[in-house]
């Protein structure tokens, strides 16, 4: 009687064993990777917890198939290379329990989450009788920015939330930048010049900025020449402070109306029809 465990069969068994070990290794790697992704999501949620917010990724959106209202508003930011970037902030109201949720793609810094929380509080303070039976689901879109940072979109978030609560359309010819305070006042921001150019290039008619920021101080380089008795000149450079009024310059050179506003009430007429 001949044995079945010949050289050919032994090689086959070794090959099958190797494939089995490779499969187990891949399964462990996939399991480990999924665990790291879950841990990262949990870390983001814990970061947002102290702010009273929730965050989600586009792969696991919050529940609620019924949209009670959906609105969008343009926003302007500045990239890492100091270039103005246009984007959009979107808001959906869905049945819920008064939670605020912010999409994590692109990732938004805690300052943005804090600004959105204040914006919702300002909007809700105008309608104290509103039922607490909805969730506020925010997300951001931008052609360039992968990281949304700062509080300069706070005023826009307040206007967007008001529009969603009262179900009013937002006019498409205005952009606002500014932080939002709990009393509805609008605070100052940075990079006004860069943002003004981006808004103008995008074709908007009005750009609302915080009160007191229309005048920008910049430094102009001046070169002085002084002759010497030795027959050569000495060149000396110095920088002289100058003041540029953005409202005047933007209208004359770009056709853009740059308007200072101090609070949300002054800004609303530029976004809502009478």
Automatic annotation (TrEMBL):
Membrane topology: Multi-pass membrane protein
GO CC term, one of those recorded: endomembrane system
SUPFAM superfamilies reported for this sequence: Ribosomal protein S5 domain 2-like
Name of this protein: Lon proteolytic domain-containing protein
The organism's place on the tree of life at top rank: Archaea
Lon proteolytic domain location: 150-213
One GO biological process term: proteolysis
Species of origin: Methanothrix soehngenii (strain ATCC 5969 / DSM 3671 / JCM 10134 / NBRC 103675 / OCM 69 / GP-6)
């Amino acid at each position: 009687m001949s044995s079945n465990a010949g050289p050919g069969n032994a090689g086959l068994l070794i090959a099958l064993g190797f494939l089995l070990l490779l499969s187990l290794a891949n399964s462990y790697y996939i399991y480990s990777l999924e665990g790291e992704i879950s841990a990262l999501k949990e870390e983001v949620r814990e970061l947002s917890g102290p702010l009273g917010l929730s965050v989600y990724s586009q792969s696991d959106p919050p529940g609620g198939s019924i949209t009670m209202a959906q609105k969008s508003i343009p926003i302007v930011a500045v990239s890492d290379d100091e270039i103005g970037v246009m984007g959009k902030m979107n808001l959906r109201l869905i049945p819920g329990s008064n939670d605020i949720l912010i999409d994590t793609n692109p990732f938004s810094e805690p300052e943005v989450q804090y600004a959105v929380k204040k914006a919702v509080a300002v909007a809700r303070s105008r309608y104290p009788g509103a039922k607490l039976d909805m969730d506020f689901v925010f997300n951001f879109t931008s052609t360039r920015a992968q990281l949304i940072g700062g509080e300069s979109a706070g005023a826009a978030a307040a206007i967007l939330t008001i529009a969603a609560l009262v179900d009013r359309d937002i006019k498409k010819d205005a952009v606002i930048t500014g932080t939002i305070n709990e009393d509805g006042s609008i605070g100052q921001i940075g990079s006004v010049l860069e943002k003004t150019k981006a808004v103008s290039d995008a074709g908007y008619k009005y750009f609302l900025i915080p009160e007191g920021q229309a005048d920008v101080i910049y430094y102009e380089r001046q070169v002085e020449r002084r002759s010497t008795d030795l027959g050569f000149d000495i060149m000396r450079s110095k920088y002289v402070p100058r003041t540029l009024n953005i409202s005047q310059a933007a209208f004359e050179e770009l056709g853009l109306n740059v308007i200072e506003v101090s609070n949300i009430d002054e800004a609303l007429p530029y976004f809502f029809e009478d």
